[in-house]
Hints:
Elements: H1 9-16, E1 20-24, H2 31-44, E2 49-54, H3 58-71, H4 82-95, E3 100-105, E4 126-132, E5 145-148, H5 154-167, H6 178-184, H7 189-202, H8 206-217, H9 234-248, H10 257-264, H11 280-288, H12 301-313, E6 318-319, E7 328-329, H13 332-340, H14 344-361, H15 370-387, H16 398-409, H17 413-430, H18 436-451, H19 455-473, H20 478-493, H21 497-514, H22 520-535, H23 539-557, H24 562-577, H25 581-599, H26 604-619, H27 623-641, H28 646-662, H29 665-683, H30 688-703, H31 707-722, H32 729-744, H33 748-765, H34 770-785, H35 789-807, H36 812-827, H37 831-849, H38 854-868, H39 873-891, H40 896-911, H41 915-934
Parallel strand pairs: 1-4, 1-5, 2-3, 3-4
Antiparallel strand pairs: 6-7
Amino acid sequence: MASAFQPRTALREQITARPAVLLSGGGGVGKSQLAAACAHQASADGTDLVVWLDATDTARMVTGYATAARRVQAPDARGEDTEADAKTFFDWLAATSRSWLIVLDNLTDLEGIAAWWPPHSAAGTGRVLATTRRRDARLSGGGRSVVAMDTYSPEEADTYLRDRFAGAGMDHLRDGQSAALLHELGHLPLASAHAAAYMLNEDVPCGDYLRLFTDRRSRPDTVLPRAADTEGYGLPVTTALLITLDAVQRREPVGLAVPALRLTAHLDPAGHPLGLWAEAGVGRYLDLYRTPGAEASEVTADEARAAVHLLHEYALINGDFQDSARTVRIHALTARAVRENTPEAQAAAGMRTAADALLGIWPETEHPDAELTAVLRANAATLSALAGDLLWQDGGHPVLYEYGLSLLHAGLYEAAVTHWQRLTADAGRLLDDGHDDIVLTRAHLMDAYRRAHRTDEAIACGEQLVADLVRRQGADSADAKAIRGSLSAAYWLAGRHPEAITAAEQAVTDAEELLGEDDPVTVTTRSNLAAFYAASGRANEAIPLAEAAVADRERLFGTDDTATTTARSVLAGAYESAGRIQEALALQSMVVQDQERLLGRDHPTALEARLNLVGTYLAADRPDEAITLCERSLSDAERLLGTDHPTTLAARSNLAHLHAQTTSAPEAIPLLVRAAGDCERVLGPDHPYTLQALGNLGIAYSGAGRHSEAIALLLKTVSYARRLGRGHPDHMTALRSLAWCYQEAGRPDEATSVMERFAAEVLESGAHDSETISALFPLVGALFRVERGDAAIELLERLLTTVHEALGQDHPETLLVGDALAHCLLQMGRARDAIPLLERIAAGYERRLGRHDGETISAWGAVAIAYTETDRAGEAITLLEALVSESTRELGADHPAVRDAHETLAIAYLKAGRYGAAARAIGRMIGGTLRRRWGWSRRG
């Protein structure tokens, strides 16, 4: 609270005597301070609830009401609809017998908040206090009283001056001219504070100061432009300020106080770090603009700090030297008066110096000191707004970029979008076409859009930038390649998964060629590709890539680097995709702990890590822990991001789906209905989160026996997803869900028809992830059941061509599809066609896994069985006898693969009519089984 503050007893009595008060007055007269004093007093007097709201924005007020509703546990406040919760809070305020005070600070739009003015308290225990600069007649009415607030009364001003002098033991300064002086100061608290500080430091009585003030006020350089004094308080403040500056420029360190104050006036009034004054550029600025006539010399950090202390002594700033982040503060009216009296060239130099100094003290790693970086962002924002184009000289000043990146790092994504939009516009307006900063600002804007889940804007921005770069620099543009790599993440978020993987694969190649193996961009690009592979079911490709990325990050940047923890999260996802659930759970749990420790529990990245852990808990069959964590994460998302943020909506949808999986479907359906409705309302019908929520609801309807509702909903979902294009993953997922519901409803023909549409899109899109491929196998079975085996074989042949071209002949998915096709051929009596395919599959397993792996032995056994179907029993027996001998020697007689080989050999013997040999093979197989089951040894 400022030293000029007085209790204003008469005003406080008017406020406390009335249930609804608007405290009206100009800027700087102490409205907020008086309101704060009233709020503290209400709390001390035992008021049950005191709520302070920033009333400059209606939406912010409504959010504050909704938060208060949950704090007081108002009935029906569920945290799902902000406006509904705010209205619930109003109902609570109107009905409760508990005492309450609502403070609405800096109210500007009375008409706009008419619907959100707190209600009348039926019990007479509630009060409302609002502060505003408005003075019009429309303030009153509706039970509201207006209390006008102006500067100090003559008595308050006199009391202030008397107390200040008495506290310093300098009562002699108060003479017969004190009342006249206070009148000239306009009884303004801030001007009185400047005058009192001067008189105390210079030992000047009121009469002498009055003569100085009158003389200074009459000089032309004191007069402010009319537009700069809208409150009518600028002239007294400016005059008192200039008198003080005349004095401080003569005090040690001589000549430095004035340029120091001018630099301060261009930073955040709420404060900046004292460390800024140790920057070398600040010393050079102070030396260049020190008072004419002062001895020039290199200004040291100690002298710069001494200038700050001098300004504090004269009340030109407030130096809180116990606060390392906001040490140096200045009143906004003082700062404005200083800026209005600063020569243009010096102001420009001061702003560039301040920008350099902020950049110099910006920490390399932000997360250890979140408070400091928040203060630096506030100062950069103030400086940027005041400087305008002055921070653009052959490109934007680096502090503008540091500020924007810090917004992204802090998870302030919408603020980051606004910042990068402005920088992009400034770069386009001020720089020549093709300047590097034009590319850089647009690239950061694309990233901000992506992180804010504004994927359509991110993709449009990135694709346009790539087109421009190719046009100017050619098809091999390194910049265009880098942007294409960044676009992969936006493609993925938009559901354009094949494009995302293709872009990420090319980005890895480009980064390795352009930047080298150990560049941070290269390592991050590999990790991103691993994440896409894992999410596409390509775990065997994802795991080695993700493990290498983690090892590289730990080696290059340490274990506590935030990007290292992100790489670990990708690896956890790859483990989960591969079925290595316990490894995934341990690693993802560690990621959550690290993200919360490094970034803080409330950072969006930490929230995302918790939501990832929810899925891992579910995969580990720990649904209770998954639900508990998801409920907590949903609460965090609502508090941090708002009830309608995409991450919040996804968390709510996931929680509803968890309940559907762990409770009976009828109990979960209301949650799923609400989640799907919220997603559709906020995100639109074809957003990935909406489609997922609708699909989950359809499955729940079907599980509850409500097949007609399920099918109708999923038909609508398929229609929505169709807008994304044939082959889009969300459209194919919707088709699969619809086919399942038809099957559950006892409508197999329609289920088969839908699955054929699904298969056509799979083949058209070239999708080859394991989940999609596995989803086709039920269709193969259905086609065989309706005697359409040829159609099943044609489908598998086309699918095999797709995966072979995409993944290679020995990839697990290629071998899986080939094996399915071969067995379909056998089932159709086409053993001769199946044999070459089975031989290739067995050779592929042998190359991948070795001659004596169980999969390899099983594959060669399938070849031998096919031989027996084509009168090649002799070849089958020769193959199997060699296989049994080798596998017994390598694996032992009791290994399951050896038992299977004996069984296959016995079948071959039987088909060849060698019944004794078959009996011996069966005996060895049974003996191996008994030994494994009962633990018998050969001797036993």
